Amino acid sequence: MSNAATFDTRTxxxxxxxxxLAYSYRxxxxxxxxxxxxxxxxxxxxxxxxxxxxxxxALDEAVRGVxxxxxxxxxxxxxxxASGERSIQWLSPDEWLVIVPGGEExxxxxxxxxxxxxxxxxxxxxSGGQTLLELAGEAARELLMKxxxxxxxxxxxxxxxxxxxxxxxxxxxxxxxxxERWELVVRxxxxxxxxxxxxxxxxxxxxxVEQ
Amino acid sequence: MxxxxxxYCGEHREEEEFRPKGQAHIERPAEPEACSDEEWGNYLFFRxxxxxxxxxxxxxxVGCRKFFNVTRHTVSYEILETYKMGExxxxxxxxxxxxxxxxAVSHQEGVWA
Lengths: 211, 113
Ligand SMILES: [Zn+2]
Hints:
The complex is a heterodimer of chains A (about 210) and B (about 110).
Chain A: H1 22-28, E1 40-44, E2 48-54, H2 56-66, E3 78-80, E4 87-92, E5 95-100, H3 105-116, E6 121-125, E7 130-136, H4 140-145, E8 162-167, E9 170-175, E10 181-187, H5 188-202, E11 208-210
Chain B: E1 3-6, E2 11-14, E3 19-23, H1 37-45, E4 53-59, E5 67-73, E6 79-84, H2 100-108
Antiparallel strand pairs in B: 1-2, 3-4, 4-5, 5-6
The structure holds zinc ion.
């Protein structure tokens, strides 16, 4: 166990938590589904996000032992567990993003620290700093095509890929967990901007928001 | 718009994701206290400004956020190669392996490559 000071960032359950988009829903609304809806936007709020840095070999051994998923060593790769609820995305040669159901991040961090012992690594809980937006529907890719600078054609962006790129001038992690869905991990401070961009850009596809 | 190959991401990425960071392969003097003012000043402030082949650092700012090296031709702006930190360029001002069109531009502009 390392001597790093850690603490559980989750508030007491008596204190209500608000998603980064709570303000956006109030201010900009959440369009309902209609006959012309070809894109659905859904926020998967308050998940556990950990940034894990260090050598791939030591980290791989640790996450396989704790999460049962092997660390993606290849650039631009996204791996998930069987349920699809836990994922690891390659961010750089020594950096990965781990996303788990909300509340699991602190126990996970603690167990990883126990496993990693005196290895040279860093784990940062960034759950409060970013949120995950999900796009589904037949026009999701079309919507992305006018928003991100990265080529999202299926031949270039297959399922299981994840990149950090520019989304409407903001930095975003764009991921494709399966055939139907695209995921955007955006900064909390940019969440409202990205939400309103998606509503505006999605208007022509009758974008609807699931809450 | 053009694409730059990031040696860490292993693929070509949009120019907008990158930032230039100045001359590459600058070595910090091993013993700063033993440097003359001129040596230290040269290390700190003076940079090459060649017409022709230039080695630069770039950072994949929106992406893997790693620094890497670029060999770029300052007349044609062509990126001749990119390579990881710690590696040496395979194309230099002295090397004979310049692409023909770059060599032609150098000649036309009167550059001593
Ligand atoms: Zn990169």
